[in-house]
Amino acid sequence: MFVILVYDFAQKRVGKALKISRKYLHWVQNSVLEGEISKANYTKLKLELEGLMDPDEDSVIFYTFRTLSYSKREELGVKKGGDENII
Amino acid sequence: MFVILVYDFAQKRVGKALKISRKYLHWVQNSVLEGEISKANYTKLKLELEGLMDPDEDSVIFYTFRTLSYSKREELGVKKGGDENII
């Protein structure tokens, strides 16, 4: 399945959140990752982020799609994220 | 159609970016909005954000979907965004 992950972590945890997420998905913007993921890895990713997060301070939204055949993606401006921009 | 909008604007423009985006979509996380939008309003939204942004510094990604029938949304942690959290 395809996942779009958007997160908002407190500064002290945001580096770790990115590190976890990048094991499974591609980094496409400051706090956004996306990619194909297996159901097993999706479960792992959720557990790892849940283990890291303070649920009173941090936020994660996962949009999951069985198919992307009816979707489009448009990007404006600078490309952020990606392997060249590790924080 | 349904749109997920994620942006990363420089600090001095981020308030305006949110203000523009909230005219058309629901604010669900710090830099994430989503919602149903007409094609005409989607075009307007893109033009307004393009007019605001510095393409060398800022980034916007739009994911658009004709249908959400094969998608799921999961949220962990605190709910950010929303009318009560205007910055």
Task: Describe the protein's architecture and organization.
- Chains A, B: GO terms for molecular function: hydrolase activity; metal ion binding; RNA endonuclease activity.
- Chains A, B: Homodimer, forms a heterotetramer with a Cas1 homodimer.
- Two copies of one chain form a homodimer.
- The first copy, chain A, has helices at residues 11-22, 39-52, and strands at residues 2-8, 26-29, 32-36, 59-65, 71-77.
- The first copy, chain A, is an alpha+beta fold and 87 residues long.
- Chain A starts with a strand and ends in a 10-residue tail after the last strand.
- In chain A, strand 2 (26-29) and strand 3 (32-36) form a beta hairpin.
Supply the number of structural domains of chain A: 1
Number of extended strands of chain A = 5
Estimated helix fraction of chain A? 25-40%
Provide the succession of SSEs of chain A: EHEEHEE
What does the largest sheet of chain A look like? 4 strands, antiparallel
CATH architecture of chain A: 2-Layer Sandwich
Most extensive interface, chain pair and sizes: A-B, 38 and 38 residues
The overall average pLDDT of chain A, rounded, is 90
Low-confidence stretches of chain A: none
Overall outline of chain A:
globular
Please name the CATH topology of chain A.
Answer: Alpha-Beta Plaits
| Widest sheet: strand ordering of chain A | 2-3-1-4
Question: What percentage of amino acids of chain A are in beta strands?
Answer: 25-35%
**CATH class categorisation of chain A:** Alpha Beta
Structural class of chain A: alpha+beta
GO biological process, one term (chains A, B): defense response to virus
Pfam families (chains A, B): CRISPR_Cas2 (PF09827)
Enzyme class (chains A, B): hydrolase
Subunit structure (chains A, B): Homodimer, forms a heterotetramer with a Cas1 homodimer.
